[in-house]
Amino acid sequence: MRRGSTMARRSSSAAVVPMIVLAAVLTSSLLPAAAAGGGAGASFGNWIALNQQSYAVNAALYAQKSAGEGGKTLDTNLSAAEEKKVVYVVDPSGGGDYTNITAALADIPDGNTKRVVLDLKPGVVFREKLFLNISKPFITFKSDPMKPATISWNDTAATLGKDGKPVGTVGSTTVAVESDYFMAYGVVFRNDAPLAKPGAKGGQAVALRLFGTKAALYNCTIDGGQDTLYDHKGLHYFKDCLIRGSVDFIFGFGRSFYEDCRIESVVKEVAVLTAQQRTKSIEGAIDSGFSFKNCSIGGVKGGQIYLGRAWGDSSRVVYAYTEMGEEVVPIGWDGWNVAKPESSGIYYGEFKCFGAGADAKKKKRVGWALDLTEEQAKPFVGAHYIFGDSWIQPPSVTSGGQAGKKGNQTEAAAAPQAAAKAPTTAEAPAAAEATTNVTAAKAPAAEATNATAAKTTPASEAKNASATESAKASPAAEATKSSSSAATPK
């Protein structure tokens, strides 16, 4: 990172003192606000205010940092890794450096400090079950969005492992990423296990699990049924992606921003898009939540789609400028097992959404879901929500780099149509909010922020997941359910 003159730094430091004080004051107020009493209405109001306070804290901290660095806030570890980029071609026919992804990953050393781009041969289906461990950051899977490579496996939670016991939801994953700074471009992640029947146990089938922080996916497809995308933990950015599934198919306690994505149900029965696990009982989860902007929601004609249900006492999901198809049920949301969602800390909101499924909300949405004001929506409608100014880069960074071990230099071709939509977020954080949906109004301007995501060990997270996993079962058959209530677990 470039530094200004000593005098400039001192001047800037003095200028941001009030902001530091503001951040300290607001930070000290967050916990009491969340715990305050005063009845259900007062408690819900406190949680609304908490999100706006948190946004002000992050804005102040960013101002403190950027003032001394000319606004250049790109993560230093990331910058160093990109400067040492290497590219390897993975081609099962033998025309590259490796014939499978597993072998390529095995050759990446623990403690890796280089951006390693695995260029997957377009159109190829790789039947592999992959695990990127925490010691191998800066890995990119790259293919062609017009003819993507597919990584596919078919385990479910009921699949028996080597020890003869079911592998569980975590173990069902096709591609598990526990390392930081992961990127993917133009790749299909799929779990092609048969769709679980309504009410069946052990049908969870994860296509992609993200546990590492600062992960970005562009023009990717994440395809499956129940529990397709385990947005487990960390800061994640999804741009121009297609996500398909049936029940709770975007779930976990990541802090993630979905932009210009298509979210699609694959079943005619009741589908639930999100099961966000924001809770006070898991350290770090209280700062999590899913934000969708300029997305579209739809599915099988005649089906029913719930926007989300609460996997945790303080689940948080926001949709902004999003087109909602007629399949979205009028009630919108479900509190699941939370007895009093209006006082638990659940935060479900919509802002300037449109379409048949959004129009229905005017009279029939649940009373504890929010029709957000512009001020309430502001914390969620830009990459600042995931502190993206410091790490989000356009997919063009997958180009170039040092040749692989066989001399296969891989220069990316001119970006196809999908790549041309590279996020303004990465190239000019201050202008990130220029992105719009074809028929949506412009979102408010983003305010850049910066923070470091806390990270616990994968082992502790697996324990947390297993402790709550038993409660997150497939919904029972909807034939016996009221039209005003989302599916409940067996």
Please supply descriptive tags for the structure shown above:
490 residues, alpha/beta, Pectate Lyase C-like, 11-stranded parallel beta sheet, 8-stranded parallel beta sheet, 22% helix, disordered N terminus, disordered C terminus, pectinesterase activity
Layout of helices and strands:
Elements: H1 6-15, H2 17-35, H3 39-67, H4 76-83, E1 86-90, H5 101-106, E2 116-120, E3 125-127, E4 130-132, E5 139-142, E6 149-153, H6 168-171, E7 175-177, E8 183-185, E9 187-191, E10 208-210, E11 215-218, E12 221-223, E13 229-230, E14 235-239, E15 242-245, E16 247-252, E17 255-259, E18 262-265, E19 270-276, E20 289-293, E21 296-298, E22 304-306, E23 308-309, E24 316-320, E25 323-324, E26 333-334, H7 341-344, E27 347-351, H8 356-359, H9 361-364, E28 370-371, H10 374-377, H11 424-427, H12 458-469
Parallel strand pairs: 1-2, 2-5, 3-6, 4-7, 5-8, 6-9, 7-10, 8-11, 9-12, 10-13, 11-14, 12-15, 13-16, 14-17, 15-18, 16-19, 17-20, 18-21, 19-22, 20-24, 21-25, 23-26, 24-27, 27-28
Helix pairs in contact: 2-3
* Major beta sheet, strand line-up: 1-2-5-8-11-14-17-20-24-27-28
Classify the beta-strand content into a percent band: 15-25%
Average pLDDT number: 75
User: What is the CATH-assigned architecture of the domain at 84-217?
Assistant: 3 Solenoid
Briefly note the structural class of the backbone. Answer: alpha/beta
Distance between the termini: 53 Å
User: CATH top level of the domain at 84-217?
Assistant: Mainly Beta
- Helix count, per DSSP? 12
Low-confidence stretches: 1-41, 65-71, 407-471, 473-490
Give the overall form. Answer: globular
Share of residues in helices? 10-25%
Characterize the largest beta sheet: strand count, sense, and whether it forms a barrel. 11 strands, parallel
Task: Let me know the CATH homologous superfamily of the domain at 84-217.
Answer: Single-stranded right-handed beta-helix, Pectin lyase-like
CATH structural fold name of the domain at 84-217: Pectate Lyase C-like
Radius of gyration: 22 Å
DSSP, total strands? 28
